């Protein structure tokens, strides 16, 4: 008998995170600090995106972030603003 694990299985759902390139970095690289200046935020986000660019699970990470649970931070090589723009475009296409 074969055991079939579905995508909604909580054990398998986030296994991709074990292979994420970001796990060796401080969370502060990926999340905005309180009162962070724009130029500092832009540099930090660019550095985070460079980590994401080399990540073997970038697509899974972006899919996770866009599914709703992660509003803040850089996920899958996108900022929260970029994901909001992508959501808006998808909504407009449905109309």
What this model shows, in words?
The chain has 95 residues and is mainly α. It has one domain. It is 46% helix and 0% strand. It is built from four helices and no strands.
Task: Name the descriptors.
single chain; 95 residues; mainly alpha; 4 helices; disordered N terminus
In a few lines, what is going on in this structure?
The chain is an all-alpha fold.
Low-confidence stretches: 1-6
- The number of helical runs is 4
Proportion in β-strands: under 5%
**Structural class, judged by helices and strands?**
mainly alpha
On the 0 to 100 scale, the average pLDDT is 85
Instruction: Give the CA-CA distance, first to last residue.
Output: 45 Å
Outline? globular
Q: For the report, how would you describe the main beta sheet? A: none
Structural domain count: 1
Which radius of gyration do the C-alpha atoms yield? 15 Å
Q: Into which percent range does the helicity of residues fall?
A: 40-55%
Instruction: Tell how many strands the DSSP assignment holds.
Output: 0
What is the H-and-E element order? HHHH
Topology:
Blueprint: H1 10-13, H2 38-53, H3 58-66, H4 80-94
